[in-house]
Design goal:
Elements (H helix, E strand, L loop, with lengths): L1 H20 L30 E2 L2 H18 L3 H15 L6 H12 L3 H19 L3 E3 L2 E6 L2 H4 L2 E5 L18 E6 L1
Antiparallel strand pairs: 1-2, 3-4, 3-5
Length: about 180
């Protein structure tokens, strides 16, 4: 029994000393500091409208709606509120449903982009109703994101086929599809 204990002890001592000799010196990792203050966030722009409108008031409302949408695509809550305020003024000049007026007013009153996106869905429905028979020529595109609002889905109207998702911004910028065309 003593021999066995001695052998185990000797084996352990040899293992420790041989491992100690093979230790590799670990170099400290290089620390690289990156200056993010100078870099700017990429700004996304919605396609220019090629469609022509019958009514200049509806045209102005749609163009301002696109400004609101672009601010949401860029996840800029402050600009979304500002652009929504401008849209609110234009919408008061035409006859729209109360839900649309309430949605744009709520978007103008907050700088919480998630709240703004929730109201944008209602605003889009109101804008879509205004577009019926409003185009003299050209095409607008109703686009749809199936993942918006926990997979409930939501739509928006765009001036081009290119998908720039206002419900997710650059987190899921290209999530969506052209659902239909508005002529």
């Amino acid at each position: 029994m003593k021999k066995l204990s001695f052998v185990v002890l000797a084996f352990t001592a040899i293992a420790f000393t041989s491992c100690k000799d093979n230790e590799k010196k670990v170099e400290e990792p290089e620390v690289v500091t990156v200056d993010n203050t100078a870099s700017e966030k990429e700004v996304y722009e919605i396609s220019e409208r090629e469609a022509e409108f019958n009514d200049p008031k509806i045209e102005a409302i749609f163009d301002q709606y696109i400004e609101v949408q672009e601010a949401l695509v860029n996840t800029d809550a402050e600009k979304t509120a500002s652009e929504s305020s401008k849209l609110e003024v234009l919408i008061k000049e035409v006859e729209v449903n109360e839900a649309t007026q309430t949605a744009v007013a709520a978007m103008a009153a907050t700088e919480d982009v998630n709240v703004q996106r929730e109201h944008f869905e209602t605003l889009t429905a109101g804008i879509e109703g205004m577009l019926e028979g409003a185009l003299a020529s050209g095409t607008l595109y109703k686009q749809y994101c199936p993942m918006a609002f926990n997979n409930k889905g939501a739509a928006w109207i765009s001036s081009g086929k290119n998908i720039l998702n206002p419900y997710f911004g650059d987190k899921m910028l290209k999530c969506g599809r052209v659902d239909s065309e508005i002529n």
